[in-house]
Amino acid sequence: MSAPTMTTDKAAGPRRPRHRGDVPRPRGGGFAKALRRNLTAHGFLIGAVLCFSFFSWYPMVREFLLAFQKTEGGQTTWAGWSNLTTVFNDPAFWQAWRNTALFTVLALLLGFAVPFLVAVVLNEFRHAQGYLRMLVYLPVMLPPVASVLLFKYLYDPGYGLFNEILGFFGLPAQQWLQDPDTSMLSVVIAATWMNMGGATLIYLAALQGIPGELYEAAELDGAGVLRKIWHVTVPQTRLILSLMLLMQVIATMQVFVEPFLLTGGAGPEGSTTTVVYLIYQYAFNFNNYGAAAALGLVLLVLLAGISAVYVKLSRAEDE
């Protein structure tokens, strides 16, 4: 029996003892080993790709095809630009875009500024911050229908809480959802309360990443609260603020649940008719799926354009 020999390598150090009768193993099959080792990761990746394919990419392709098709008598034919012509000639089309733009502007004034201010206030608390975060995020955990019905009760002109508060201060009661002048603002208030929790937590996480030395330096320079927010907080959270602005623009332009449940969709004198609600009407009230797909395609192109402008501006700032 031969004694084992110790092999050494100046770079790697001593190796394990090897007997003279050992046969070196082949080094093939590296790809198969890597595939087996990463089988779980590949499985999750394939599942995600399939989900995106069936629930995101396929509906987008199908919508694009439907926008140029027409179905009559069970037969589908190509309609060219007729669906887009029908949509653009509809008087409700321009009203829906005006209402959607108004909702977006009001929602950004409230839904973009209020969560940031709440996050700034929460960031100043040193105790019970976890409880306060849960309290702010609680409306997001509620089912949207339950939240909307709660606000519908609060807006009731007869026994609603909002009119009770106005009456306590000697102010006249309001027809919150029945008045064309206040219906859209009422929808915005409900939507802001329902969705501000997620944005608040994102802003709060960004604020907690700001070095405290910057605030100390600002205090030494005599900066007050507002100057510290403007010169320290806003510049340090500029990237997350711009990203959240884009996401909120995209989300608000697709609003549907709040006006549909609060005002029946159209609202008084069509004051809460949005683009997505008009798509719903084309598809399920008028059975015109081609026009619905055409309007959806217009909305898709507009949102894609806004996203492209955001990406281009972001790259310009990075350079």
TrEMBL record:
The chain crosses the membrane at residues 39-58, 101-122, 134-155, 184-206, 237-257, 289-311. Belongs to the binding-protein-dependent transport system permease family. It comes from Streptomyces kurssanovii. PROSITE patterns: ABC_TM1 (PS50928). It is found in: Cell membrane. Residues 1-29 are annotated as: Disordered. It holds the Pfam family BPD_transp_1. InterPro entries: ABC_transporter_permease, MetI-like, MetI-like_sf. This is Sugar ABC transporter permease. It is a multi-pass membrane protein. Keywords: Cell membrane, Membrane, Transmembrane, Transmembrane helix, Transport. Residues 97-310 form the ABC transmembrane type-1 domain. Its main location: membrane.
